[in-house]
Amino acid sequence: MTSRHILSLAALCCLALAAPAGAADTTYGSQLMTPQERAEHRATLRNQATEADRNAYRQQHHDAMQARARERGVQLPDTPPAQGGGANRRAGGQGMGPRGGR
């Protein structure tokens, strides 16, 4: 492999790992978390069985981030950011299934 190929590969890896331009991390307290903690948090949320489980986990995370902020002398907003409207989210939590019996 030539050095040009290695540099190209390295640049592609960096681009693949970087967040898209303008993308904001909406994880509550993300500024107090390491990249690994943020990844683990997202994975834990994805692995919750029900919306109620996800909400309970979010509340635990919120409380933990509030405690971490107090320890570090940082102030976080009282309420977490609004939940995103990702591609798989619809009213009623139906995901990508058929709409209205179509």
UniProtKB/TrEMBL annotation:
<keyword id="KW-0732">Signal</keyword>
<feature type="region of interest" description="Disordered">
    <location>
        <begin position="30"/>
        <end position="102"/>
    </location>
</feature>
<feature type="signal peptide">
    <location>
        <begin position="1"/>
        <end position="23"/>
    </location>
</feature>
<feature type="compositionally biased region" description="Gly residues">
    <location>
        <begin position="83"/>
        <end position="102"/>
    </location>
</feature>
<feature type="compositionally biased region" description="Basic and acidic residues">
    <location>
        <begin position="51"/>
        <end position="73"/>
    </location>
</feature>
<protein>
    <recommendedName>
        <fullName>DUF4148 domain-containing protein</fullName>
    </recommendedName>
</protein>
